[in-house]
Amino acid sequence: MARSSVFISYRRDVDALRSAVLHLLINSTFNNDGKAERLEIFRDIRGRLGVDWPDEIRDKLTKADILLVVVGPGWLGAQDQHRRRRIDQPDDWVRQEIEMGLAECETVIPIAFETELPAADALPSSIRGLAMKQGTYVRDAFFADDLQPVLLAIEQHLGDGPSRTSRASSEERRLPWPDPPLTVTPAPLDRTDIDRALAEMITGWSVVTTPVPEEPDRSRVELYREFRFRSFRDVLRFMTDIGGFIDNLNHHPRWENVYETLYVYLTTWDIGHRISHLDIVLANHFDKTYADYTDPT
Description:
- The protein has 297 residues and is of the alpha/beta class.
- The chain folds into 2 domains: 4-167, Rossmann fold (3-Layer(aba) Sandwich); 191-293, 2-Layer Sandwich (Gyrase A, domain 2).
- It has 8 helices and 9 strands.
- The strands form 2 sheets. Strands 2-1-3-4-5 form a 5-stranded parallel β-sheet, sandwiched between helices.
- Strand 3, helix 3 (93-104) and strand 4 form a beta-alpha-beta unit.
- Helix 1 runs antiparallel to helix 8, helix 2 (55-63) runs parallel beside helix 3 (93-104) and helix 7 packs antiparallel against helix 8 (277-290).
- The protein is globular, with a radius of gyration of 20 Å.
């Protein structure tokens, strides 16, 4: 069986959520069918400040077939403690990952999340080749849809029999491959991934377990948070502001408004009322939108 390796490069302080959801989506697409793992996915999650570039990173990059470079809105302008662009520093981890990836990996794909890919003249000379690579643009509200070219590129490296896309016409080719083909069925997150998200990405949320109303013998696992506002009108405006993102994501909350408080519960019905990467993405957007309704002090 062919086995490929993907390395995800990202800035931990600005793109941790996007890289984590990317990891989860790739893993659930290619390693969640009950068979032996087909794809090794490496995403470094350790703290990086004041730590030398470890041999483990070098080893994983040397063996990787594909380097995915996560480029969020804060990626290019990220600064060090002296207010210098980090990408300009030779010892910057992200820069070193890209330098080695351009030299060692068969495929390098920059992924621009809610921003443009940097032009060649905005990059250090050692990684200007990144600007020459075919990249893709991803909208947070259309995460799985916009990542289809990346998933298809990964699939091309897995030549071990009938592919997930071989059952569809070229017009219908889409991954992940559920039935029917144009419905994305995510995988439930394990408790380790949920706890990491609660600690690093959506810190105001908690996990609750309640009975399913229609089937009281079954339970549902949900992310939960209360949002408090200055007025009832603010609650209504907040719900309207976030409604477009929710509808585009095609993933809807269970929520209840009591005067100036909004109670929000997130779970994924399609996988038996369990938490998926869609709930993490939506919880994060709730948090970012709510920041506009809180006092700056």
